[in-house]
Design brief:
This protein has 259 residues and is of the alpha/beta class. It is built from twelve helices and nine strands. A hairpin with a 2-residue loop joins strand 8 and strand 9. The structure holds guanosine-5'-diphosphate (GDP) and magnesium ion (MG). The site of guanosine-5'-diphosphate (GDP) has 16 residues, from helix 1.
């Protein structure tokens, strides 16, 4: 089983991407299962095969511990660890080739509390990849893209899994600007030029230093725009996921090679 954790800030499009990827994989006749890890979500754009809401009732938790929505959510996510056994059993019963994990809406609940790490480490599987979503709304300017990349680096520091950093909801960026963003990603000199053009003062100084770090960490080759709505680069995303899972080889189902 190959596993992908879909991580990102609230509203960055994790659930929608989980849905689009699932459809894409099913079209390719791949045995995929989805796991919803968000105990607080009301509506999902896909029908999860495994759902933490079947184990944890956020309303019950809010009532029992007299918590508001935020406290309730924190407690609910923390309680997932106590339900690990059942969830792991369901995963093993489904025995999918690929498991997509849609993580809680607010990324800090998964990435910056212990539950996420404990949960991720308990899930078995040959290979794991973390797909980190960087919202296009923030990532369309040179300074914003760097801000997003710094957050990605934080996630990488927590999990230490192979990580893909995607600019999600890229259909919201005008074509011309999207090409520009792609230029920055492909050529750090153009990225630096853009910083010098658009950013001034202390921010420019900081951005230049951050760009050096991003380059040193080799984050840019694993950064690319995606849209789960118009399917921009969904195939490239899947190709890169396979590359991680299979150590660079094509993914095979029966005798067919899926590229
Ligand atoms: N235009 C556009 N909107 C998107 C895309 N992905 C998600 N959205 C919208 O962004 C909002 C948040 O998406 P959701 O998947 O729930 O985000 P999550 O909180 O990260 O799971 C919803 O209204 C989605 O319809 C995308 O690729 N393009
Ligand atoms: Mg969601």
């Amino acid at each position: 089983m190959y596993t992908a954790f879909i991580v990102g800030t609230a509203g960055s499009g994790k659930s929608f991407l989980t849905s689009t990827l699932t459809e894409y994989l099913k079209l390719n006749e791949i045995n995929v299962n989805t796991l919803n890890m968000d105990p607080g979500v009301l509506r999902l754009p896909y029908a999860p095969d495994i759902d933490v809401r079947a184990y944890i009732d956020i309303n019950e938790i809010m009532n029992e511990f007299e918590l508001g929505p935020n406290g309730g959510l924190v407690a609910a996510v923390d309680l997932i660890t106590s339900q690990l056994e059942g969830i792991l059993e369901e995963i093993s019963d489904g025995s999918p080739d690929i498991l997509l994990i849609d993580t809680p809406g607010q990324m800090e609940l998964f990435a910056f509390r212990s539950t996420g790490i404990i949960f991720a480490n308990q899930i078995s599987g040959d290979r794991k990849v973390l797909v980190n979503l960087m919202d296009a709304n923030l990532s369309r300017t040179p300074y914003g893209l760097l801000t997003s990349l710094m957050l990605s680096l934080n996630v990488q520091m927590r999990f230490f899994y192979p990580q893909l950093n995607i600019i999600s909801k890229s259909d919201l960026i005008e074509n011309e600007q999207l090409e520009e963003v792609q230029d920055w990603i492909e050529d750090p000199f153009k990225f630096e030029d853009a910083i010098n053009t658009y950013v001034t003062g202390e921010r420019r100084e900081m951005a230049t230093k951050m760009l050096k770090l991003v380059e040193e960490m080799q984050m840019l080759p694993e950064t690319f725009p995606v849209s789960a709505k118009t399917n921009i680069n969904i195939d490239i995303l899947y190709g890169k996921m396979q590359f991680v899972w299979q150590g660079g080889e094509d993914f095979q189902v029966d005798d067919r090679v899926i590229r």
